User: What shape does this take?
Amino acid sequence: MNVLILGSGGREHAFAYKIKQSTLCKNLYVAPGNSGTREIATNLQFQVNQFEDIVEAIKKFEIKMVIIGPEVPLVNGLSDYISANDEIKETIVIGPNKHASQLEGSKDFAKEFLNRHNIPTASHKTFTAENIKDAFSYIDSMIPPYVLKADGLAAGKGVLIIDNPNEAKNELTEMLLNSKFGDASKSVVVEEFLDGIELSCFVLTDGKNYKLLPSAKDYKRIGEGDTGLNTGGMGAISPPPFLTKDFMRKVEKKIIQPTIDGLMKDKITYKGFIFFGLIKVKEEPYVIEYNVRMGDPESEAVLPRIKSDLLELLYSVSKGQLNHQEVIIDNKESATVFLVSGGYPEQYEKNKEIFGLDKVSGSIVFHAGAKYEEGKVKTNGGRVIAITSMGATVKEALDKSYNSIKNISFEKMNYRGDIGFDL
Ligand code: AMP
Ligand code: GLY
Assistant: This one.
């Protein structure tokens, strides 16, 4: 079948890499893609929010399946848009509809869902400009630090964690009354701070059945030792070393199964990936957030560990027959290290030629903010290249990735030399 992947990051290159391995895949397209997807697929020149262009491409290239990488088109209802078009309504869309995507698109929707189905999460209240006084009283009743979350999508920036109550009230005022995060902060979730260690769990679901995919831990801060500003992700390892079988059983019993059951009870159709952002407090798992897509950089570490034919799995999702499938996970562990532009996540320059990618062996090179221009691969974003390696242990995988990085260079290239430092 012909497959279209939407997105342009390392996650989408990792999807393309896996889908390309499938014997079921005839022609593979990525829109808009990057210099990496260009090598294994046909890049199409439109963005993920150009719904009409997407529909045209589905018709023109006889696309049978669309895999939606990032959250914005999901939350904007791309899945519904495609199925509402008579000519192409048979197209398989991997990614939930607009309603289900509210699990990521509205923090309040997600919290209500979690509470309705008794899934462990931080206690919270949601406020708007109208009841900001109640929000102040709520803050006064809480033990610091205070967690403030813009209800809507805010490109990963909408969460503030603040120690001082007055500062928390000021920030809340900025969010609710002065549109600090635009429309996304018209409504704000104020919640209890959970002190623990974070991990990312992933499932693929057809809405009734689900399959566990490998779990991962990502490294969000720019600086070594987890210091400095937050980024889109500087690296990831899979599996997280502290994830025991016992703990994973708890995650399934208390979080994953109740989530799938909750979707069915609420009559929410869901076909695609669910990303559980979890926090382990002592020995108990809590949900920090749902994402309605795979993670980035987690995908670059997780997808290469799936030995099964990913396209076959996705096809059975569309048929509601995921229960007939088996997901075989590689025993090898994986580690991904991101090469980023100097200055990122603040100001940085683009258009730097990237050298040495062809010298890498023993690792997978996933392109992210990288483009092909005049015969050269050049930087085109903050997070540029993800290097993934597999090994008997995460440690071995990390050593391989760091060895591979020695071959690669571009002006002002930066990366964290300590991914997995806390193992
Ligand atoms: P989110 O956008 O919901 O993933 O939040 C961004 C980050 O804020 C998370 O990855 C956590 O590190 C942190 N965070 C969010 N909610 C909480 C919480 N209730 N307690 C502690 N940390 C949190
Ligand atoms: N790695 C976090 C995310 O994809 O949102």
In short: The longest strand covers residues 210-223. Residues 245-265 form the longest helix (21 residues).
